Write the structure tokens for this entry.
Amino acid sequence: MPMPFARRLDQVETSAIRELFKLLGKPGIISFAGGFPDSAMFDVDGIRQAAEAALRDEPGAALQYGATEGYQPLREALAQFMGGKGVQDMAPQQLIVTTGSQQALDLIGKTLIDPGDKVIVEGPTFLATIQCFRLYGADLVSAPIDADGVQVDRLEQLIVEHRPKLVYLIPTFGNPSGATLSLERRRRVLELAVQHQTVIVEDDPYGDLYFGDAPPPSLLALSHEVPGSRDWLVHCGSLSKVLAPGLRVGWMVAPPEMLARATMCKQFSDAHTSTFAQATAAQYLRAGRMPATLARVRAVYAERAQTMGEALRAELGDAIDFVPPQGGLFVWARLTGARGQVADGNVFAQRAIDQGVAFVPGAPFYCANPDHATLRLSFATAGVEQIREGVARLGQALAG
Amino acid sequence: MPMPFARRLDQVETSAIRELFKLLGKPGIISFAGGFPDSAMFDVDGIRQAAEAALRDEPGAALQYGATEGYQPLREALAQFMGGKGVQDMAPQQLIVTTGSQQALDLIGKTLIDPGDKVIVEGPTFLATIQCFRLYGADLVSAPIDADGVQVDRLEQLIVEHRPKLVYLIPTFGNPSGATLSLERRRRVLELAVQHQTVIVEDDPYGDLYFGDAPPPSLLALSHEVPGSRDWLVHCGSLSKVLAPGLRVGWMVAPPEMLARATMCKQFSDAHTSTFAQATAAQYLRAGRMPATLARVRAVYAERAQTMGEALRAELGDAIDFVPPQGGLFVWARLTGARGQVADGNVFAQRAIDQGVAFVPGAPFYCANPDHATLRLSFATAGVEQIREGVARLGQALAG
């Protein structure tokens, strides 16, 4: 007799992307497939000093069980960090520390989603959000986006039609879309939250990774302009893309009633996030190293993004369509099929692997009605020369 | 309108223990209430060296995203650690690293439990297991225990009657009971697993904390004696009680099909456990410091346990009944009500707080039919003088 697994597992398939990733071991392959930052840019010295300080100043607290809500000095440092990004009246007790922002998504699902509940996400959106919410039985609804983020008129129609438990958005440098919600649309989203009494989840792992001008303020930072909106707003932040994913330090800001329930769920999920990682992150933030780290990371990613954009234009011409990214880690592109060239992301990905370059086809990022012509290219982990070579190989894959 | 929380939250109440813990801030209180190790015994130097080595030898891997299954050098070190404790044919791929063993419990729930499923636990058992499984909709059934652990005849009756999704046991130095399942009963439990095709979860955070002779081998170590039993056995381990809870490093051994599904669930729970903490733990284990650490911790806890046992006998006499613990962190006791003395753990806990000493009443540790005369006393975090003074205060509380 097989083990009697829970029915919720039937909601989730093994990811198509995971299958693709198995091919990445091929020697000499240039990968644009990852969703992670470049480990060569980690501030290893700063993190080492922070870890040493944590074990020197507060070894008991850094190694002992801690409060489920998070290590208090880190909550304070994160509140200050958020305050510096324009969030008004940001107190430490308005956030809890999560084991990466992936755990914030899990706690949102556990706290809010009953089997059969409707949840609106962007089409396309973060793959692990789709799977995470489906494990709680969510029935996902896809809201269309354009270069200015989610189309708010269509979003309102979907809210009215489906009465969702929540709306999940990555408003700034979306994954995979790279799109950024315009200021006007941000205000409108907050108004929709109040008007339709609908929970809005703002996932914001990329907002600090801008290349030129800063993006519009986060929904959280704007919420004081729309009375009542903060009561419906959940904001997820993370140190993974800007400092180091390996710390697994994220956070969630939410209304008090929701935060209390998410804390209870977290108590039975992992008790608390590693206090050693939390104390290290707290020391790092207090040491004041983050502004210089962010400046360095932005400059490097900006150059790589520009290199990739120019190379794609030069090598693939009218076969591909994309908006040059203003931040984040990704170019989101669409095969045009011009002059009979390949127009299917999956077919192109296979041909690209044969040429020694990898990316992720876009279809799996849609919870419904996938656009099979799309693809996601990360410029984060390859150097500029590698990017030029990789895109040249894409050109060969197109011709082949 | 309030936020529309998920129905699963209705299954769980705010813990009575949490309310009690709020009283622990009272100045001068001696606490036997905790469930944690003594932070004064953490091997801070060893952990500092391990963290430094992790950031020196493999900074990219220690700070980057990692495999959901766990950091490979840690999986190897843990497999070796388990092999050293008598587990045969223990390969790294038979375990995944979890964010503390609390996450293993959560993944077991997510992977196996459908709403309404029966789950058998010991009465009494670990409180966070009760709550964790209830969040997945489990209908808990309480199996009685005695000083030799769960009563296996009664357990078999309950398995036949309820056809549970799983049976959850803490066979060695149980929390809160301190009881250790006898060797004979261990074999019988493994036979029941095969005979009734029932998943057995062995939670083993305390097995290394023995004071005299080593306890019987774990169910996992014994499983090779009972053909087929390993196919039904899940084993949860943790570094929290023997090294440091703040690393949040636990692990789960399970049959391949179950491990694959738990890994998928973990991917959407927190992606992976902190690679920084994992790399630190791996360096620590490889440095060979664990045997000395265990020897030191065992000696200190053994002395404290003996002190508490003698003091309880001297101060409370026939008002209290308990089996002197042979390992773990707890004395589990029962008020006898002799000579009309207080026989209710809750009442006694309140009186004790008034006298400046705290413990946890036992009733909340039962999923059904609580024994209100029981209480749990931790000897782990107070020194021997404090233990004597605290137990003297218990004597005053009894007299008062």
In short: The domain at 7-42+292-399 of chain B is CATH 3.90.1150.10 (Aspartate Aminotransferase, domain 1). Chain B touches chain A through 75 residues (CB under 8 Å). The longest helix of chain B spans residues 290-316.
